[in-house]
Design brief:
Elements: E1 8-9, E2 19-23, E3 26-28, H1 30-44, E4 51-53, E5 59-61, E6 73-74, E7 80-87, E8 90-97, E9 106-109, H2 111-114, E10 117-121, E11 130-136, H3 160-163, E12 166-172, H4 173-176
Parallel strand pairs: 6-9, 7-10
Antiparallel strand pairs: 1-9, 2-8, 3-5, 4-5, 7-8, 10-11, 11-12
The structure holds S-adenosylmethionine (SAM).
Amino acid sequence: SRIHGFGVFAKVAHKAGDMMIEYIGELVRPPISDLRERRIYNSLVGAGTYMFRIDDERVIDATRAGSIAHLINHSCEPNCYSRVISVLGDEHIIIFAKRDIDPWEELTYDYRSDLNIILLLVSRCSFTNNLYALFRFVSNEQRLPCYCGFPKCRGVVNDVEAEVQSTKIRVTRSELFQQKD
Ligand SMILES: C[S@@+](CC[C@H](N)C(=O)[O-])C[C@H]1O[C@@H](n2cnc3c(N)ncnc32)[C@H](O)[C@@H]1O
């Protein structure tokens, strides 16, 4: 990738809203992922980490098991976005196309706004048609310079100040599927 290390590229053209890939890995608790990152992975994979936090209880560790989705780089102007979608009680992290994507474009999503969005499907309950989204940003100790290269680049991949924020919001089902900038 021209952004960082390995990346993921589209082989064929895609339409906005297409489901691109599922982020798959080993489901672990945050203390385990923190331990692995500190003690093992920093020396194993250098600066890259492959943890996707679903919520305060669960992290997907895609370092040693999973799909190539773990190689998708961050961009401040991404062509994809991620959603954690609950299907009959199981959460799946799905990467969708944010706009039409040409063959051989690198797939990117915004780590800062997309990571750790959990959507709890409440349509199974009686007060339906709303979805709760719980935003929580992964806590990292260092600022990572961003190399996405877009004019609107914010300069850093992560944001320590934003990461300590924890906000619970409610969105409608229709809003969920209308990706906004
Ligand atoms: C999930 S990995 C992505 C795959 C990575 N390129 C690789 O080869 O392992 C996430 C790591 O990639 C790097 N990375 C991803 N997007 C980046 C960007 N826009 N600018 C700088 N580094 C980035 C950071 O080191 C980050 O911790």
